[in-house]
Every structure is written in structure tokens, then in C-alpha cells.
Write a structure and sequence with these properties.
The complex is a heterodimer.
Chain A (H helix, E strand, L loop, with lengths): L4 E10 L2 E2 L1 H10 L4 E3 L12 E3 L6 H4 L10 H17 L11 E6 L5 H14 L8 H4 L4 H10 L6 E4 L4 H14 L4 E8 L4 H8 L29 E9 H6 L7 E10 L11 H12 L8 E3 L6 H15 L5 E3 L10 H17 L1 E2 L15 E2 L5 E2 L4 E8 L3 E8 L3
Parallel strand pairs in A: 5-6, 5-7, 10-11, 10-15, 11-13
Antiparallel strand pairs in A: 1-2, 1-8, 1-9, 3-4, 7-8, 9-16, 12-14, 15-16
Chain B lengths: L6 E10 L2 E2 L1 H10 L4 E3 L12 E3 L12 H6 L2 H17 L11 E6 L5 H11 L17 H5 L2 H11 L5 E4 L5 H14 L5 E8 L4 H9 L26 E2 L1 E9 H6 L6 E10 L12 H13 L9 E3 L6 H15 L2 H4 L2 E2 L2 H4 L6 H15 L1 E2 L22 E2 L4 E8 L3 E8 L5
Parallel strand pairs in B: 4-8, 5-6, 5-7, 11-12, 11-15
Antiparallel strand pairs in B: 1-2, 1-9, 1-10, 3-4, 7-9, 10-16, 13-14, 15-16
Helix pairs in contact in B: 3-6, 7-14, 10-11
Classes of the chains: A alpha/beta, B alpha/beta.
InterPro entries (chain B): Beta-ketoacyl_synthase (IPR000794), Ketoacyl_synth_AS (IPR018201), Ketoacyl_synth_C (IPR014031), Ketoacyl_synth_N (IPR014030), PKS_Beta-ketoAc_synthase_dom (IPR020841), Thiolase-like (IPR016039)
Protein name (chain B): Act minimal PKS ketosynthase (KS/KS alpha)
Pfam family, one (chain B): ketoacyl-synt
């Protein structure tokens, strides 16, 4: 009997909402979480606004023992994972231990924790580096801590593909479901808004230097001039459909019907980027034609060249004005490994509620970027199928198609 | 039929301590020579452990261009050099396989930490500025921050445009990345995958990490004999560096083009202990489960296993943990089959070592020789298997088990077999 991967739980830690419903309400109302950087004084930096998860207090959500052992990125991931399991009504103790797994994406690990420890090393000496640096900074920390906290002993994974990684993690989760795992916690989070993390992000040349939180990140707009970084993300509970039905899971948000990942040709090749192919392969994997898609959650880089590439790919796959497109990340900033996971959560909520969240701030589409971009207010629509697109620095492309299940 | 697709290794590239390239690597292993020494890559005089297994690596001599050297961290350089060696070894010409059918799966535990640390020191002016100075940021700093750029570099080297990812499950990342590469071929998402792992963790911050938890050997007076897996006198692992990259191919396509086939990867499985980020229970339960599952998927019985390439890090708890796991998974066969740890010679290169160990397994099958466990003079009474002390051994090898164990509680097992007809 064929096994289908369905999503039964969502947990969100986003700059404009802590918890799934808070995030979704803010997003539908067009409320942004982008603001001046508050964690440190950004006056000396070219980037001064970001999407901080400012109402998050680790002590309220993370076991106290774990707080000093882990970076903020893992605090957010642990919290989202616990909420997702709670949402799914899934008690890990009720599942066979080897049939539960964790697969998360990280783009940059525990950057702030690392900056603190490396500062001690270089100012005071090696014996001042704490014992937890070895388990807090590395990219696998969040997966490991979620696995330990919930007793999940299956095949765990950690994927890094910069901002595309979360879709690859979900793809890997689907593969685990297909080969016998019953439940996978998957998704992504990142939190690298410390001085060194921000400086490293700035060196990519892709960050916005705008000071107006409402105008700093304008994907597909004539005023696009880079993106605003953010922190946070989302975790999802993925289960085998038959098992989810058998245990009467409270809600089945949708099925992971299609997934594909591609990589761009070498820089300077002059050939078409791999994004269109990722979208087409994901559709083929889902057994759907382009016309079957009701909304595309765009990557929406906010970098003119990348926006044009994406708009061109969307128009090539769906035809001109062939599909509503949205980028709610304009209200959170780009969350790196957390961004595509949050978009996937948004896509599932759009299916649930029959409404497409808006793209904030965009007023005038750039030449070549004339898409049916949902702007201003949320748009009510029957959403049976949604596509989420993500791209990662260096040439990663990924697309996932989720469909409503009955 | 997708399920009938099989994965073979047709090219190998290795950069390891003791010599660059696959040939030098295998010579070192079969001679039982150790490449552990006092760290030269940085001034380790203030550290508890001052021993490392370093690669004598000259990026210019290895053919990297000035721009490649400027933008790539040392670990990425290892990875690209290995990918090129593996591709040349495989005889696979660029253009022979459509780029969209070529994938990349590279493992790394700590990514570009060396570059990240060096740039941090400048931006923070020796650690004095929490508010680091963005005016000193080099253009490639972001490439160091996101380890996925290492997979990009390998993809560019190979002309790959299929699925590309960096797998970062800590010290099992090497096995997991090769396993993920197999998965891409088994499931039909790619026909060729450039898979392997790389790490270059010999920098102050990583050394300090392991100092802090006393995981690395403090045997600073005798660095050549400091890595002592399964020996009663072992006192921690020796931090190493290096990479191994493979050309994995769908077997029928490899045969059609007359490729040399080193071995087939038939089974791969991971389990997690959900117990502790660094601690291991002595019973080896989850690793045993991973081994059983990998053998099940590979349709190989315990009696078929001819050699076990151990994780064998040389920490007190690891060597007992995995000895227990082998007994639990293989029963009596555990006592009959040779088990060895090449970390005794080339140290523990974190995420890279799992891939380097796959290279050792493929070469063991190729040459019908088991590499030894160096420095094993007095066996720990609780480690009572045949660990092939000191000297390589000629031995008929059809099926090999390789295992990895790492922070986060991850346990991975892979079964690699001699290519067999039909």
C-alpha cells in the first residue's frame, strides 16, 4: 500500500507572531514584524532593520536546563517543534521510538552563541571556552535537541542549502515517511542577528540598507534594493496518511504531493537558472499541471536580478497572470532556513482557510515582474493546491507542492 | 523500475593526513603508519590537547586557481580537490551525463569554521569589539557563514545541476552524505551523485571546544601514538582534517560505459539515541539498531560481514559503546570478524571521517586487505573483539560494515559489498 506524507501539525516562531494563529492573524492583516534592530546598537552598521522575534522569552518555552546549552536559534526551533507536536495531538510516547525522526534545516548554526565563545577564546584564552560551545554552535544542534527532548530515535537529518534548505528537509521527511517512518518533525529556523552574523549576511551584497521598515524589502517592486534579514521559522509534523487517520489526528492540513530540487548552472554560463525546472519537476512529481495550482508562495529575494529570474520562471510555468503569487515574508524579513518552512506553514493555512495572505509594501511592479502579486489585503480564494518556492545562495532551487486532503 | 536501481562507487578522491590522494592514503593505512603530530596550523601551546592529524595540503600544487583559493575555506578546497580526483578516477567525461541528472551530497560537521574564525579575529580586532567592524568584512565572509557553499563549489567543479545539498549531522555527516547520495540514485532523482564529506576543524575555536569537554587526547608528549582506539591506555580522540569524495553511479549505466566498479553500497540506515548530545549509553542499542536496519536493507546477514570499519574514536565511552553494538547486532559473528579503526592513523576529522572511512572500505574490498588499528598494544578488557592491531591483514572481503557515531546522539551504519553480477 502506498504511503502518503501529510502534515498534521504546525508550530511557528515568526517576527510578526509567536504561535501559528498569532502569526497567521498578523499576516492576513498585513501586520509586519520588521523594525529597527534592538538586540544591539546597529548605528554603525549599513543594515539597521530586521525581523526580530522580539516577544520571545526562552524561559517561557524552553526547559531551563537547555537554555544555557543552546543558541537562540535552537530555542526557537525547540519551541516550534513542541507546538507542532501539540497541534498534531501527537504524544511521542505513543509512537514506536524508531519510527519517529527529526529533519531540520539550518543555514548558519548557532552564530550568536559562537560569537560569545569565540570572543572569550580570543580575549581570555582557550580555557575560557565553555563546554556547551561544542553542542550549541554546530548545525546539527537543533535536530539533536528535538530528538532528545521528544525521544525520537529514528533516522534524523540536518540539511544546509541556505534559504532553500527547509524544503529539502521536508523532502527528506517525505522520503522517510515513504520508507516506513511514521512521524517526522521537520522544518527550519535560524537566528543570526548578532553583530558578526549580521555583518556576514551583509557581505553577501543582498541585504537592504533601507531604514524604513515598511519600505526596506520590496520584492518584485521597482524599488527593490535587497532584503531584510529575520529570525525564527516553523516546524511541521509530517505523518503517514493512513497512520494519521488511524489515530484520528485532529487536523490534516494537506499532503506533500510534490517536491523537487535543482541547482543553477555554473556562474557566468549565461544559461537559464534552474528555478523553472524545479517548479516543473515538483509539479510532475505531484502529477499536476500548472493550472492545478491555486497560489505560489514566491522566494521573493528582493534583489532585482533574482526577482526578475523568479518572475520569468513563474510566468514561463504558469503563463502571464496565470497564478496568484504572494510573499508574506515581506512582513517577517527573510528567515534563512526558517523562511521556506514558514512559507509552507502559510501555504497550508491558506488551504485551510481559503485565503491568500498579502505581500506587504510592494506598490509598483518592476518591468518583467508583472505577476498577479496579491497586495494590499488578503484575497479570499479556493486554495486546493499551493506551491512554495525557495532559492539558496550559490544556486539552490527547491519547490514543494502541497494539496488539500479530504 | 526505480526500486531495482543499484548504486556503485566508480571514482574515489581522498585528501587525508599523511598524504594527498587516494594512493598515498591507502599506502599509509596498509603500512599502519600514523599521521598524528603536534599541531602546526596554529599555535596550540595554550591548549590541553596540542595534537592533530594535519593534511600537508598545498592548494596551488593541487591545482586550485588563485580565485578558488581566495574564496574557498580550507575545507571547501579539500572537497573540490577530492571531487576532481574522484571524477578523473571514474573516467566520467563532462557532458557524458546530462547536468540535471548529476547531484551533489557533501557532508561537513563544522563547515567553514576556519575561515569564519580568521575573519572574526580581524573584524573584532582580536576579540575586542563585540560590535564587529563591517568595514573589514571580506566579500567571501558570507560564503564561510553558510556551509552550503561547499556543496556549491563541488557542484561547479562537477557541472552538476541536479539536487545539491550539504548534510550536517555532526560526526556522522560523512556516512549520512554518502547515504543521501545513494538515496538520490535509488529513488531515481539522479543518475550520478558526487558524494562525500570534508572538514578542516584544526583551528583554535574547534580545538577549544573539545578541550572544554576533555574529548581530545592530552598525550602531547607522544603525538604519533596519541590516537589509541580500543587500547586500555586511550585517553580521547585526536582532531584531524581531510575529505573524501566519490562518484556514485547507477550500476547499469556504470556497467554500460565500462566503468571500473570499486564496490556497491547496498544498505544505509541511521538511528538516534535520544539520550544525550555527547553521552552514550554503554549498551550500544541504537547503533545496533542502525546496523540491523542497514543489513536488512542490503539483504546481508551477520554471517556475510567480512570486515567492520569501526567509528573507533579512541574515547573511553565510544569504544565500549560500539563494541557492545557490534555484539548486539551481529551476535557471535562479532567475535569472528576483523574490526579496525583508521582513526588510529589519521585522527578524527569530524564530519569528513565517515566518508574517508567509506574510501577505506572500498579500497579494502578492492585490495582484499583489512587496514589495521595502529597503537593497539594493550586491549581494553571490555573491548574484546579482533581489532586487527598494528598490522594490515590480507583477508577475503565481500561485505563490509562501516559505522559512525556522533554528537546529537546520531548513529549511522552502511553496508558496502564487492560488485556481484546480477
Amino acid at each position: 500500500m502506498s504511503r502518503h506524507a501529510v502534515i498534521t501539525g504546525i508550530g511557528v516562531t515568526a517576527p510578526n507572531g509567536l504561535g501559528t494563529e498569532a502569526y497567521w492573524a498578523a499576516t492576513l492583516e498585513g501586520r509586519s514584524g520588521i523594525g529597527p534592530i534592538s538586540r544591539f546598537d546597529p548605528a554603525g552598521y549599513p543594515v539597521r532593520v530586521a525581523g526580530e522575534v522580539s516577544d520571545f522569552t526562552a524561559a517561557e518555552h524552553v526547559p531551563s536546563r537547555l537554555i544555557p546549552q543552546t543558541d537562540n536559534w535552537t530555542h526557537l526551533g525547540l519551541t516550534a517543534a513542541a507546538w507542532a507536536l501539540d497541534d498534531a495531538g501527537a504524544d511521542p510516547a505513543a509512537f514506536p521510538e524508531y519510527e519517529m525522526a527529526v529533519v531540520t534545516a539550518s543555514s548558519s548554526g548557532g552564530t550568536e552563541f559562537g560569537q560569545r565563545e569565540i570572543e572569550r577564546l580570543w580575549t581570555k584564552g582557550p580555557s575560557w571556552v565553555g563546554a556547551y560551545q561544542s553542542i550549541a554552535w554546530f548545525y546539527a544542534a537543533t535536530t539533536g535537541q528535538i530528538s532528545i527532548r521528544h525521544g525520537m530515535r529514528g533516522s534524523c537529518g540536518v540539511v544546509c542549502a541556505e534559504q532553500a534548505g527547509a524544503l529539502d528537509a521536508v523532502g527528506q521527511a517525505r522520503q522517510l515517511i515513504r520508507t516506513g517512518t511514521r512521524l517526522v518533525v521537520t522544518g527550519g529556523a535560524d537566528a543570526s542577528l548578532c553583530p558578526y552574523g549580521l555583518t556576514a549576511q551583509y557581505s553577501s551584497g543582498r541585504l537592504s540598507q533601507g531604514d524604513d521598515p515598511g519600505r526596506a524589502y520590496l520584492p518584485f517592486d521597482v524599488g527593490a534594493a535587497g532584503y531584510v534579514p529575520g529570525e525564527g521559522g516553523a516546524m511541521l509534523v509530517v505523518e503517514n496518511a493512513a497512520d494519521a487517520h488511524a489515530r484520528a489526528a485532529p487536523v490534516i492540513y494537506g499532503e506533500i504531493a510534490g517536491y523537487a530540487a535543482t541547482f543553477d548552472p555554473r556562474p557566468g554560463s549565461g544559461r537559464e537558472p534552474g528555478l523553472r525546472r524545479a517548479m516543473e519537476l515538483a509539479l510532475a512529481d505531484a502529477g499536476l499541471a500548472a493550472g492545478g495550482v491555486d497560489v505560489v508562495f514566491a522566494d521573493a529575494a528582493g534583489v532585482p536580478e533574482l526577482d526578475l529570474q523568479e518572475a520569468t520562471a513563474i510566468r514561463a510555468v504558469f503563463g502571464p497572470d496565470g497564478v496568484p503569487v504572494t510573499a508574506p515574508k515581506t512582513m517577517t524579513g527573510r528567515l534563512y532556513a526558517g523562511g521556506a518552512a514558514l512559507d509552507l506553514a502559510g501555504a497550508l493555512l491558506a488551504i485551510r482557510d481559503g485565503v491568500i495572505p498579502p505581500t506587504a509594501g510592494v506598490t509598483e511592479l518592476a518591468p518583467g515582474c508583472d505577476l498577479d502579486l496579491v497586495r494590499g489585503a488578503a484575497r479570499e480564494a479556493r486554495v486546493g493546491t499551493a506551491m512554495v518556492v525557495a532559492r539558496g545562495y550559490g544556486g539552490f532551487n527547491a519547490a514543494i507542492v502541497v494539496t488539500k486532503t479530504d | 523500475m526505480v526500486n531495482d536501481r543499484r548504486v556503485v562507487i566508480t571514482g574515489i578522491g581522498v585528501t587525508a593526513p599523511g598524504g594527498i590522494g587516494t594512493k598515498a592514503f591507502w599506502e599509509l593505512l596498509t603500512a599502519g603508519r600514523t599521521a598524528t603530530r603536534t599541531i602546526t596550523l596554529f599555535d596550540a601551546s595554550g591548549f590541553r590537547s596540542r595534537i592533530g592529524a594535519e593534511c600537508d595540503f598545498d592548494p596551488v600544487a593541487e591545482g586550485l586557481s588563485p580565485q578558488e583559493i581566495r574564496r574557498m575555506d580550507r575545507a571547501a578546497q579539500f572537497g573540490v580537490v577530492c571531487a576532481r580526483e574522484a571524477l578523473a578516477d571514474s573516467g566520467l567525461e563532462e557532458g557524458a551525463v546530462p547536468p540535471e541528472r548529476i547531484g551533489v551530497s557533501i557532508g561537513s560537521a563544522v563547515g567553514c569554521t576556519m575561515g569564519l574564525e580568521q575573519e572574526y579575529v580581524v573584524l573584532s580586532d582580536g576579540g575586542r569589539r563585540w560590535l564587529v567592524d563591517p568595514a573589514y568584512a571580506v566579500r567571501h565572509l558570507y560564503g564561510y557563514m553558510v556551509p552550503s557553499t561547499m556543496a556549491c563549489e563541488v557542484a561547479w567543479a562537477a557541472g552538476a545541476e541536479g539536487p545539491v545539498s550539504l548534510i550536517s549531522t555532526g560526526c556522522t555527516a560523512g556516512l549520512d552524505a554518502v547515504g543521501n547520495g545513494c538515496q538520490l540514485i535509488w529513488t531515481g532523482r539522479a543518475d550520478v551523485v558526487i558524494a562525500g564529506a570534508t572538514d578542516a576543524p584544526l583551528s583554535p575555536i574547534t580545538a577549544a571546544c573539545f578541550d572544554a569537554i576533555k574529548a581530545t587526547s592530552p598525550n602531547n608528549d607522544d603525538p604519533a601514538h596519541a590516537s589509541r582506539p580500543f587500547d586500555a591506555d586511550r585517553d580521547g580522540f585526536v582532531l584531524g582534517e581531510g575529505a573524501a569524495v566519490f562518484v556514485l553511479e547507477e550500476r547499469e549505466a556504470a556497467r554500460r560505459r565500462g566503468a571500473h566498479i570499486y564496490a556497491e553500497i547496498v544498505g544505509f540506515a541511521g538511528r538516534s539515541n535520544a539520550y544525550h548530545m555527547t553521552g552514550l549509553k554503554p549498551d550500544g542499542r541504537e547503533m545496533a539498531e542502525a546496523i540491523r536496519q542497514a543489513m536488512h536493507l542490503g539483504r546481508v546477514d551477520a554471517a556475510d560481514i567480512d570486515y567492520i570499519n569501526a567509528h573507533g574514536s579512541g574515547t573511553k565511552q565510544n569504544d565500549r559503546h560500539e563494541t557492545a553494538a557490534f555484539k548486539r547486532a551481529l551476535g557471535r559473528r562479532a567475535y569472528e570478524v576483523p574490526v579496525s579503526s583508521i582513526k588510529s592513523m589519521i585522527g578524527h576529522s569530524l564530519g569528513a571521517i565517515g566518508a574517508i572511512e567509506v574510501a577505506a572500505c572500498a579500497l579494502a574490498i578492492e585490495h582484499q586487505v583489512v587496514p589495521p588499528t595502529a597503537n593497539l598494544h594493550t586491549r581494553d578488557p571490555e573491548c574484546d573483539l579482533d581489532y586487527v592491531p598494528l598490522t594490515a591483514r590480507e583477508h577475503p572481503i565481500d561485505s563490509v560494515l562501516s559505522v559512525g557515531s556522533g554528537f546529537g546522539g546520531f548513529q549511522t551504519a552502511m553496508v558496502i559489498v564487492r560488485d556481484r553480477a546480477a
